[in-house]
Specification:
globular, 163 residues
Length: 163
């Protein structure tokens, strides 16, 4: 799962089994997620789009696919879905667009709760602020937010409408 601001700087990336223990997985999934940024931009220009759910952004191969969600303020959420599942067993079933909405809504709710925290300042999490020494780096460090994202990632299953 990845959360990005309007400037496409990554705010948070979480990996889940079986990929969380794989050497080099963080870098590999960073590349996969960054490759979806152009597709976010293309979908954003679609004048007929009325929903935040951008659906399938692109399929990497028969196993991995990237799905997107964008808020009205331009905050982007991306989920890389492994159809082989947590066990890494080939032959897992595909997932439809509607099946991911619950996970995206839960992620957006967790982010909104983070923004409601008076001690969290979103502008401190930009590359420019970090470069100038006035920011806290681009990554979200809120323990509560990270735990909620981890919970969502571990609990979500295809077909769940509420996470």
């Amino acid at each position: 799962m990845k959360l990005m601001r309007v400037q496409d700087n990554p705010l948070h990336i979480s990996l889940f089994p079986p990929h969380s223990s794989t050497p080099g997985a963080y870098l590999e999934f960073s590349f996969i997620l960054n490759s979806s940024l152009d597709i976010f931009d293309l979908r954003r220009r679609d004048k007929n789009r009325v929903d935040q759910d951008l659906g399938l952004l692109h399929a990497i191969d028969e196993r991995l696919s990237v799905w997107g969600w964008e808020t009205g303020t331009g905050t982007r959420f991306a989920i890389v879905l492994d159809v082989w599942g947590r066990e890494g067993i080939e032959g897992g079933r595909g997932v439809g667009e509607a099946e991911l909405r619950g996970a995206f809504r839960a992620l957006q709710t967790a982010y909104i709760r983070l923004l409601q925290n008076p001690f969290y300042v979103p502008d401190e999490h930009t590359p420019m602020a970090a470069r100038e020494g006035r920011g806290k780096g681009s990554q979200i460090t809120s323990r509560k937010f990270i735990e909620e994202v981890e919970r969502i990632g571990m609990v979500w299953r295809p077909g769940m409408s509420n996470v």
